[in-house]
Amino acid sequence: MVTLTTLHWIFLFYVLVVIVVMGLRRDPLIPCIIGILHIGWMYSGKLVGAIQSVFNALVVAGTEFLGIIVVISLIVAMSKVLTELGADYLIMRPAAKLMVNADIAFWILGIAMLIVSWFVWPSPAVALIGGIMLPIAVRAGLPTMGAAMAMNLFGHGIGLSTDYVIQGAPTITAKAAGLDPSALIRASVPLIIVMALVTTIIAYIQVKRDINTNRAKHDQERLAFEKEQKQVEITNLSYVFAVLVPLAFIADVWAMLAFDLKGGDATALVGGTAALLLALGSILKYGVESLEKITDFVRDGFMFGIKIFAPVIIIGGFFFLGKGELSAQILGKGAPGFLEDVGLALSSAVPLNKAFIAIIELAAGMIVGLDGSGFSPLPLVGSIAATFGKAVELNVATLAALGQIAGVWTGGGTIIPWGLIPVAAIAGVNPIELARRNFVPVIAGLAATTLVAIFLM
Known about the structure:
This protein is mainly alpha-helical. It contains 21 helices and no strands. It has one domain. Helix content is 81%, strand content 0%. The chain crosses the membrane at residues 6-24, 29-48, 54-77, 98-119, 125-142, 187-207, 237-257, 269-288, 300-322, 415-432, 439-456. Keywords: Membrane, Transmembrane, Transmembrane helix. This is Transporter.
C-alpha cells in the first residue's frame, strides 16, 4: 500500500487551486509556478534546488511538446503562403458550389471545416472557411447562427478533439498518460463517433426548427447579408498549388497507413511536408524576394504556435509532477509520481468503479477547460487516466480519450463564450448566444459519450 506524504498533500492542494482558478475563468500559470517551486523546495530542501525545479519543469514540458509546436507553426506559415497564392480560394470553391440549400449548406460547411481543421488547425480554418464558404452558405438559406454552429462544432469540436493528422492533442494527452498516441487515437474513434453524431444531429434539428419558425427573419438576413468579397488574383500558380497541396497531404495520410507511421513519425511527415510546400510556394511566388518573405511567414507561424502553447507548457510542467518518469526529470532521481501514488492509495481506501472514474475524468476535463484553452486540460486528464489505470483495471486509453474530448469540447471553444469569439466574429453573431445554442447539443453529446466510454473501459 502506498503511503501519502506531506509532499503528496501539497501537490493535491495545488491541483485543487489550479482547478478552482480555471473554474473562475482565470489563468492558472502563477499557481502552477508556485506549486512547482514549493514542491521543489520541500523535495530538495534547498531554495536553489526549488528554483532549478521550476526551470526543469518548463524544459521537460517544452521538450515533450516541441514537435507539436513546430508542426503547427509550420502549417500556419504554409497556410499564409496559400492565401498569398490564392490557392486557398480554389481549394474551397468546389465544396462551396455544392451548397444549394440550407440543409446541404449546414453539412457541407461543417465537413469542410472539419477537414481543413485536421490539416491546418481550427483557428486558421475559421478565417479560410469563414471568408470563402460562409457567405455562400448564408445565401443558400442557412442562418448566420446556424453557419457559426456548424463551423464551431465540426472545427473546434470534432476536429480539435480528434486532431488525427497533426496529432497535437493526442500526443499531449498520451504523454501524460504514459501511452503511445496511436493507442489513444484508436480508443477515441468510437467515442468521437458518438460525440459527433449526437452533437451535430441535435444542432441540425435546432437550426431546422429555427429556419421554420423564423423564416421571414432569415429571408431578410439572407438578402441583407453582405460580405466584402476577397479580391484574389488567380494565376496558373494558384491552380498548381490548389492541386499540389491537397495531393501532398493525402499522400502523407497514405504513407502513415502504408508504413505504419505513428506519433512523432506521423507528425514529422506532416511537418516536413508543410515546410517544403512553404518553401516551394515562397520561391515560385516571390523569386529572389522569397529569401525575406519566407522569414515573415515562418515568424508569423511560430508566433501563433508559441501563443497557443506557452501557457500549456507551464501547466504541463506542473501536472507532469504527477507521473513518476517525468517527475524524476524535474525534481531529481527518486522523485515520486504524485498523482500515480494518490490513485493507488485511493484505490486501497475507496471502492472505485468505472462509472465513478469516468465522471471524475469528464468533470476534470470540463472544469479545467473553462479557461478557454482546449489544450490546457490535456496534461491533467492524461495524468488522471494514468493514475486510475494503475489503481484499477480499466482501459487507460479510453479513459484518457474521454478526458480529451471533454476538455477540448469545453475549452476549445464550443460552450464557453470567451472561446467562441473567432467564429462568432467572422459570422457576425453574439458569442454568448452561440454558446447558448451549442450548450444542449454538446452536453447531450458528452453524456452519451461518457456512457459509451464506461461500457468500453
